[in-house]
Amino acid sequence: MKKRTLLFPIIFLALFPVLSFSTKAVLETNHMYLLAVKETAEETTGVIADLFLRITPGNGRVYIETFPLTKYDTQISTRFARDIACDFIDFDCSKYDFFYTIKADSAIIGGPSAGAAIAILTISSLLEIPIKESVAITGTINSGGIIGPVSGLIEKIDAAAEKNLTTVLIPQGTGKTSLAKLEIDLTEYGKEKNITVKEVFDINEAFALFTGTKLKEKKEFSIDPNYKKTMSYLAQLLCNRSKSLLDQISKLEPQTKSLKKAKKKAVELYEKGIKAKQDRLFYSAASYCFGSNVKSRFVLLSLKKDVNLTKLEEEIEKFDNSLNKTAIKTITDLESYMVVKERLFEARKTLDELSAIELQDEDFFYDAAYVTERIYSAATWHQFFGKPGMEFIFKEGALKEGCLKRLGEAEERYQYAKLFLGEELTSTKEELDQAYSDLDNGEYTLCMFRATKAKAEADVVINMIGVHKEQLDSLLKSKLSIIQRVIAEQQEKGIFPILGYSYYEYASSLKEEEPFLAALYLEYALELSNLDIYFPSAKQPETEPEKKEKPLTEAQKKVIYIHIIIFFCGFAAGIIVLTLFTRIKTKTKKEKMSIKPTRASRRSPRRKKR
Q: CATH number, domain at 129?
């Protein structure tokens, strides 16, 4: 029993350093400098704020305090930055609460410009990798860990120089700016202030400059066989329909200029679709053939004057009722539901507008053609339901929460884009308004989809400001590379983002002829490739093949090595302490035994008789 008891000091001394080290991140408050700007009536100036983070055991909540107070959108951007950081390093943050504090000497402009800094500090704290406090970063944080442009770069570099910082990291593509109609190279401007100014594209690049540790290597994905099979079938259906419609209109002779143009365009789009199908770009093929179908159907309806609005309405209602009964279990199901629901909504909205028109002119027949083909397109996308994949919990509460989070992010980026442009973004505002309407109507999945698209549209506007045409190709290549990595990481989780990949593929086919449109679809691809961060995962089905464990990052290996070293140091210390304790105890015992009692001391004391 005594021997067993003596083991406790060894175990405690061995484990105590490890336990202390493991809880370091949740006991300490981590810090970095934050670049910000303040506005007065006369001018805008740069300021240095302090960003603090403390992580404690909890339930995944995010708390933020600002001194002085900043705008509400700072809270939204902080929460999103935390989510992106946790997802980037694949860390389960649902077991911790995050307390962020921003302190500045004066009121600073709120918004998402601190997103990159918050993400960097969060990752540093979670991985227990210290950052260089002489380095600062400014930029928004976007899906995939991409760092987006912000304003006030000159003022922020000035503030960094006053604080004696050595390096300022700015978003890629923002190295040149205009001041009083003069173009300023920020790298050269920084040198004059003894500041190294570097452009960075994503968290990976920025984190390496802050810590010397690279988090991720380049990854490539493989196209999911189920996706390839289903999308090729979908493309085949749409392109076969194109061929049939073209055969019908080839026998007709349209008289008006618009009908002749539509007939010609239908042929061109069909040929593009066939070429894309041969190149195994199945989503692109489906998109081109859908466009061809609308043009051909327009010619047919205009010449035959045959439109049955009641029949179209019945088709939509029947399909929609069936869709609402479809179970959503995987991200593929969720994305399929989004696409089908949106197509049905567009068809219904256009049909409602048609029903109010008395004059059946060419615009009427074009819209009727669009409704007809949109319904058919929705039916083809329904093929993606029920495919295998990682399952999530898509209860109404989770869907509503996902909708609200995406709305908050989209609203924040929309307001930020307006600040950049100084004007309204009409199409983005309409998308946002419709998302709010979906929220009110309980259409939470559709709300998420629209809010995601609105956020992407606002982001692409922000990202394109100040980008010259010669820089666009480099920007698109960098973004394509990031999306490849994001999709590869999703595959490692057992998810293949069908919309993310589809838009990625379509952007790839557009980037030579229509680079700005390609940029928009790349934003869609990014935003629709991380929907899993909004939902709790369900238990994996027993029939699902066992997935290989992901290789550890260098940072994770480093932490494990340190834990092992500390454990053995603690273990050795425990043995040394125990040995010393045993020797002292033995020596004391021997000393006691060596002192023999005298005869007098062994006698019992007697009382003296009186």
A: 3.30.230.10
Same-domain check for residues 160 and 235: no
In this structure, what token pair is assigned to residue 553?
């990052």
Residue 193 DSSP SS3: coil
| Domain, as residue range, for 421 | 396-534
Annotate 444-455 with b (16+ C-beta within 10 A) or e (fewer): bbbbbbbbbbbb
Distance CA 416, CA 461 (A): 10
372 shares a domain with 238? yes
pLDDT digits (tens, 9 = 90+) for 224-260: 999 999 999 999 999 999 999 999 999 888 889 999 9
Burial of 5 (0-12, 13-18, 19+ CB in 10 A): exposed
Closest CA to 435 of 415, 458, 455: 455
Contact 133, 31 (CB under 8 A): yes
For the segment 328-377, what is each residue's pLDDT rounded down to a tens digit?
A: 999 999 999 999 999 999 999 999 999 888 778 889 999 999 999 999 99
What are residue 54's DSSP bridge partners?
29, 99
Q: Cis ω on the peptide bond leading into residue 68 (within 30° of 0)?
A: yes
Spatial distance between the Cα atoms of 76 and 406, rounded to a whole number of angstroms: 10
In angstroms, the CA 464 to CA 460 distance is 6
Residue 597: pLDDT over 70: no
Q: Are 195 and 469 in contact (CB under 8 A)?
A: no
Of 153, 84, 9, the closest CA to residue 405 belongs to 84
Tokens of 108: 């600073």
- Structure confidence by residue, pLDDT tens digits, 46-78: 999 999 999 999 999 999 988 875 555 678 889
Question: What percent of the chain shows pLDDT beyond 90?
Answer: 60
Whether residue 545 lies inside any domain: the answer is: no
Reduced to 3 states, what is the DSSP secondary structure of residue 89? coil
Query: Average pLDDT, stretch 431-445?
Result: 96
Nearest to 227 by CA among 286, 267, 178: 286
356-360 LR contacts (CB < 8 Å, sep 24+): 360/305, 360/307
Distance CA 504, CA 219 (A): 15
Helix (H) or strand (E) holding 118: helix 115-127
Are 65 and 198 contained in the same domain? Answer: yes
Do residues 239 and 277 make contact, with C-beta atoms less than 8 angstroms apart? yes
The HSE-up count of residue 556 (CA atoms within 13 Å, CB side) is 9
Q: What is the pLDDT of residues 367-405, one digit of tens each?
A: 999 999 999 999 999 999 999 889 999 999 999 999 999
Rounded Cα distance between 606 and 609, Å, is 9
What is the pLDDT confidence band of residue 9, given thresholds at 50, 70 and 90?
low
